[in-house]
Amino acid sequence: MSSLIDRPFAKMNGLGNEILVVDLRGSSARASAADAQALARRGETHFDQLMAIHDPKTPGTAAFMRILNADGSEVSACGNGTRCVAWGLMEEAGAREVMLETAAGLLECTAGEAPGQVTVDMGAPKFGWADIPLAEEFADTRAIELQLGPIEAPLIHSPSVVNVGNPHAIFWVDDLDVVDLRRAGPLLENHPLFPERANISLAKVTSKSAITLKVWERGAGLTLACGTAACAAAVSAARTRRTGRDVVVTLPGGPLRIVWREGDDHILMTGPAEFEHDGRLTAEMFSAAA
Ligand SMILES: N[C@@H](CCC[C@H](N)C(=O)O)C(=O)O
User: Fold this and answer.
1) What is the distance in A from the centroid of ligand 1 to the CA of 226?
2) Which residues contact 18 (CB under 8 A, 6 or more apart)?
3) For helices 79-93 and 227-239, what crossing angle results, to 10°?
4) What's this model's pTM, rounded to 2 decimal places?
5) Are 188 and 202 in contact (CB under 8 A)?
6) Ligand 1 pocket, 18 CB below 6 A?
7) Bridge pairing between strands 117-121 and 105-111
């Protein structure tokens, strides 16, 4: 029997990235991998990421947040989901800023100028091979060599790799459809060079301040948008002098503005959070027959 039964949920999205926010504040309930897999399968609660919000652990924070992918794996960052949670908590408190906490640290979130827009300080990226992590040492992670299968090898190569709270590989392309991510995504996500798997993006730089992006997400598959992938692409593009540090990253679901701030190297992500519907989780939602 799931400990989540009867807990309130809100179905939201960030640029079409499907987010299920489950409110566990005031309870000792904890979302399991099996809970996530069951809820991800059902229409009403269908999601790419489940954001479980818990009572705050640190003074000054509004909530502690756990993040689960649709496959049940737990991760430490989700840009679109963070905007959704922040938007909900700001609405609840009538506030324009909120501090959230994850196992990986604090996330400062601010309401944007346009309604429904939220800016999240995603912290500083990590470029060291062991931090990403990679299975072998690379002195320079701006472009790494990795073995690809015979279909992809002639088409994509030398991704930039970075950890923005989670691991990302960015393949620079002229055509976002050059490979079928639905086929290549799972192979690349599980490449032996990525011991914790990786989120895989195809990125096209269209100007010094614009990138278009398609993402195969670790643990969720093809999604309409991925906030951390947009951050990963933006810092990788700036680091390789393809763009400046202030860019618009356009995903299939729409645009995010990413600023890689000079001085503290923090990444600021701005984009929308949209409420769809809410309800309470029922025992039936966790039953095997989805
Ligand atoms: N959709 C998210 C990323 C969620 C986590 C990712 N799939 C992972 O496993 O690292 C976003 O908006 O950042």
Assistant:
1) 6
2) 11, 46, 47, 48, 49, 223
3) 120
4) 0.97
5) no
6) no
7) antiparallel
> Is the minimum distance from the CB of 199 to ligand 1 under 6 angstroms?
yes
Residue 219 Cβ < 6 Å to ligand 1? yes
List average pLDDT for each run of 10 residues in the chain, which is 290 residues long.
95 98 97 97 96 98 98 98 98 97 96 94 98 98 95 95 98 97 97 98 98 98 98 98 98 98 97 97 82
Q: Which amino acid is at 47?
A: F
Mutate to test the pocket of ligand 1, among 201, 218, 224, 251 (most ligand atoms within 8 A of CB): 218
**109 annotated active-site:** no
C-beta atoms surrounding 70 within 10 Å: 22
Two tokens at 134?
């990679």
Exactly one of 78, 84, 109, 231 is catalytic; name it.
78
Residues, the chain, total? 290
